[in-house]
Every structure is written in structure tokens, then in C-alpha cells.
Amino acid sequence: MKARILYIEDNEQNFYLVNFILTGRGHQVSWAKDGKEGIEQAGSGDFVLILLDIQLPVMDGYTVARTLRENPALFRVPIVALTSYAMPGDRERALEAGCTGYIEKPINPATFATQIESFLATGARGGEP
């Protein structure tokens, strides 16, 4: 099951680890280093999943998620917040901004691919634009 995944993340080490795990499972991972670049890539690519850090330069992940959800072509693409924000209310805030799911960093390399593949298997958020 090869999937095209966009990872919007400003930290190169975080991208490297996620890329290593997911390409090892046959997926293709593209990298955007800030929110603006992520929005541009998401709109021009054929991604089936978007992984989104919340603490980003240029614009934060909440703003990115809301902006992506305004694009009808991306409405059904799952967006998973992948973030070190783990305070009470952070998960809810990410979901309210338009994220489909939420995974806390640091990720567990033993279970991460399975978590991501569960989002691929269930597809995007329900409903219509």
C-alpha cells in the first residue's frame, strides 16, 4: 500500500525519522519546511495524507489546517497533527482547526507506521465540503 504523504515540519531530524519509517513501509513522503510551503505543496500535489506539525515558522499548524480545509480538493484528505504540544486542550484545538487525528511527539518508532496506516485505511474525514 504505497501512499503519497506530505509532512509539514520545520525540524529536519523529525522529518528524517518519519521519512525513514514510512519509506521503509513503501510510502512516499514529501517535505514542506513551513506552513506557507506546506499549503502550496498540498494544493499542487496528489497527497492522500498530510502530517502537520503545530509549531511552525511563517504560520502555525492550526492556521495551516484551517487554510487546507478551505480548499475543496483537500477536504477529504486526512490531516494528522504530529506535535509535541501535549497540554490539556491541544488535541481538541487541533481537531477544531480541521485535523483528522493527533499524534504526540516523540513518536514511538515501533507503532508509528501502524498509526499512520490506520488513517490511510479509514480515509478522510466524513461529511461533505
Summarize, please:
The protein has one domain: Response regulator (Rossmann fold, 3-Layer(aba) Sandwich). It is 39% helix and 18% strand.
Largest sheet: 5 strands, parallel
Secondary structure tally: strands? 5
Average of pLDDT: 92
Strand order of the largest sheet: 2-1-3-4-5
**CATH superfamily grouping:** Response regulator
Radius of gyration: 13 Å
Structure description:
This protein has 129 residues and is of the alpha/beta class. Helix content is 39%, strand content 18%. It is built from five helices and five strands. The chain has a five-stranded parallel sheet, sandwiched between helices. Helix 2 runs parallel beside helix 3 (61-69). The longest helix has 12 residues, at 12-23. The chain starts with a strand and ends in a 7-residue tail after the last helix.
Give the helices and strands, then pairings.
Layout: E1 4-8, H1 12-23, E2 28-32, H2 35-44, E3 49-52, H3 61-69, E4 79-83, H4 90-97, E5 101-104, H5 112-122
Parallel strand pairs: 1-2, 1-3, 3-4, 4-5
Key phrases:
single chain; 129 residues; alpha/beta; Rossmann fold; five-stranded parallel sheet; 5 helices; 39% helix
